[in-house]
Model the fold of this input.
Amino acid sequence: MERVVFLRSKIEQVMKAYLEELNQPNNENIRFESVIDPNGQHFQIIALGWENEKRVFNLLFHLDIIDEKIWVQEDKMENSIAELLVEHGVSKKDIVLAYFPEYHRQFTEYAVA
Done:
């Protein structure tokens, strides 16, 4: 449980820092929100708003904590969410790039499962 608390705190640190970066005046028509499910250990940042009369609703990333590891289910960020987590002190062995098939994960620097 202690490990999960540590991973959760690191995810929330990264999300807070990234939201501060995203929510700048040049993005006045787009709002970025964090979605955190504390019971299910699910974490997302979404973009929503309007751009040139077109509706914007995008999932930037989705993370889960499963078996005391961070599973990156989706990552559409310019800077990899996994790399941001590593910069904030999470070990690569504690991060699974779930958007790759399991056979491919062995070729990354991250956990396989």
In short: DSSP finds three helices and five strands in the chain. The longest strand covers residues 54-66. The beta strands are 30-37, 42-51, 54-66, 69-75, 95-97. The longest helix spans residues 2-22.
